[in-house]
């Protein structure tokens, strides 16, 4: 996804409107002044993780005050400035949303806020809970009334229930019942809680901010607010700040690990972030180098699909010795009104956003490099444009293995039927997208770049997931009526 001055995520994040694969970003801050302002700036840095909704909740020590919008962080700042100025406190949480569960609707925008016997709670979540359906049914059968169509809400019902509320750490006890992917931040009175699931699917980083702390989905948020990166929160780790005191808990005696989402490195995360112990840009360049070694091709120019294919194309050019040039130019001024997570809109946005540079490709053998191939419809269009502009050969190199399986852990991949590589050979895919040759990075090559890949999930490539998933969860499973998007604050 690229940038437009006020409402697009920054170019350097590398994410694209033609991809259905964003998720959410979370921030928690404790022990600093002007906490709403700090959260807003951190959320701006995490905007690439979700453009459908943004929200900030600040605690004054007892009462939680929330401002949310079904839009970008810049919309929150532009349209809710006065409300934000009234958010006073030293602890708060924030969220940018892409709907991996639930419809595009203000009531699903996080942080979710509830009030129960123990007081007010706010919760921001990144990931998908794979047992949320079963838990929701259980709670509904006992009379619980759900307010949102998200998987996240079930945790708040659990925290509020006497069975959990009686425990010394109600949140830790409730989190132990959850399955699937969660990186979470919660605020309650003067308390901030940060937690990561036992497999560590989604990233969550801890930073020092003056005399306080910040927790964020990616480390790219830290320089934006003057924070220093301390470490990543471990899989299965829960941190609880009560005022100035910090306590640490574990969800299991031994974290399960093996679930770090490899797609964070391939595509989602911002290149300047460090996650799962590695800088994202450095990993992407290394994937491009590995790809060039595995799938060499005779060509005159390496052309990245901007922006997400750029680091891999750099690596490919370095390792192959073929010069890289910008054969596609991205239009950064397409309005946000085009961004809707539907196939039709994605195709329309993709067409509007990329223009071919004829002088770079005319009369040349072009090798196009992209980070991944999902449906293949966009690349098909790109190949046609290159040929029309005079490229004599078009070769496609993909810096990740074929995506054959869906994701149940917080990434909105299409169903198997929509994945171009679900049950096709490389030759068949090459024919469909219209290239002279196609080469994917091997699974072994991917693992090699990631130091063996032991701690990673490769489920969408292999169909083998770190955790068993019952049934086939759907994004709108908890929506009885899908309301139209609304905008406002609560
Ligand atoms: S299945 Fe794929 S996208 Fe989902 S968590 Fe695993 S690696 Fe990430």
* Rg computed from alpha carbons, rounded to a whole number of angstroms: 22 Å
CATH superfamily of the largest domain: Aminohydrolase, N-terminal nucleophile (Ntn) domain
Distance between the termini: 29 Å
Which strand order does the major sheet show? 3-2-4-1-10-9-11
- Number of DSSP helical runs: 17
As for the number of domains, it is: 2
Unreliably modeled segments: 1-22, 481-490
How many runs of DSSP E, i.e. beta strands?
23
Cofactors and ligands: iron/sulfur cluster
Structural shape: elongated
Backbone structural class: alpha+beta
Provide the CATH top-level class of the largest domain. Alpha Beta
Annotated CATH architecture of the largest domain: 4-Layer Sandwich
Helix content: 25-40%
Give a quick account of the main beta sheet: strands, pairing sense, barrel closure. 7 strands, antiparallel
CATH fold name of the largest domain: Glutamine Phosphoribosylpyrophosphate, subunit 1, domain 1
For the residues shown, what is the average pLDDT? 88
